[in-house]
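Reviewers of the previous submission asked for a worked example of the structure-prediction workflow described in the proposal, so we include one complete record here. The input consisted solely of the amino acid sequence. No template or homolog information was supplied to the procedure at any stage.
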Amino acid sequence: MALCSCAIVILGASGDLTRRKLMPALNTLFGQGHIGKSCVIVGSGRTFFTDDGFRNRFEADRDFGDLLFYHQHTPGLRNFIMSKGNFSRIIVFLSQPPSAYQSSIKELAADGFGKETMIALEKPFGYDYDSACKLNETLLKCFDEKQIYRIDHYLGKEVVQDILVFRFANSLFYPLWNSRYIESIQINAIESEGVGERGRYFDGAGIIRDMVQNHLLQLLCLLTMEAPVTLGADDIREQKISVLRSMEIINCNRFQYKGYRSEKDISPDSLTETYAELSLRINNFRWQSTPIYIRTGKALHRKGTEIGVRFKSVPQVLYNRSGDLNENTIIFKIQPQEGIILDLSTKIPVNSTITSAHMNLCYREAFSVPSPEAYQKLIQEILNCDRTLFVSALETETAWQLINGFSDKGAPGFYPKGFMPTGDSNIKWIDFDSYAGVC
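From that input alone, the workflow returned the following structure tokens.
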């Protein structure tokens, strides 16, 4: 059903996020009939555009282009919107640098945006615990928590949404999902590119703030949380917050790729980490003795995000007398390919040799419908007023509390571009590279 009587506003509409992600997603949703012709999409920012000049910035269907308008600056924006129609709902995307969030929120409230308004903002939600609390305080002075949609685009990825289905819709795995059977949980999120054009932002943040505090802790929460009472947003958030509170970082190794300090907008004496390897534990009944490892970085040998769940070995009898039988492993492939892989031991036909075999659920082969782009899914959920895939104020603050003190701790080591740094040599990492070509 098409959404009608709604205005969609993008603050910072001349920026890269609007061009690459928001407008293509909105265009697709319009083409699929989720956004009606009675809606309007209004861009706003400091730069001046005519309506036609704004429309011409994007590759979009002509009918979709007719929905686009532009208003310079925030003052007078609400009256401009209402001059286009009587809209019962206004969705405002803050497609801006995070430093502009608080002033924009205050300007929206001063301009008369109220109960009909829904605010969507992209991570990072603050720079540390104190700034996250201040941002949330400003948001909640101007709008109700139920009007706020904090976007972590990883939560819009299909495999990430499938984690809860995998855990709680399959009796095969639910009884095994604990420290009695699982040897370790590992998250691997790496990129081959350096900081590129994001130098000014990244040098003030680092990879821990950019990836661990939000994306990777969200993945870990979904993987380790207890079963919610319902699939409603509040019940899922409650369980994520509970497991976040029980997490503890044991060790953190920070590295910086060689040549980083020569990149555009990077301080020549920067101590910002571009790679981090963390060891964590969860101090609750389910996960007490299961180690958790996270590593993430830039300028490495490939691009990929995977979650690995390694099960404990079978006893050293029968087929495992020598103790060298491979452990069963489940791999959730988040990107670039999507899929779930289960590694099992099996016998090679004709002889008695035991080997590992993959059982693959490759999304592009298993489903006739292609996975929607993450922003498309998230925008559709905002249009439907569903907050399940979005992050609460308390989640953000609890995650910042966890990493406080680790993101800027000491001088980083160095590694050459294209090579994985050596962190804690005691970690037995899953060979994620061997799954790169699977799916």
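The chain has 13 helices and 15 strands. We consider this example representative of the routine output the project will generate in years two and three.
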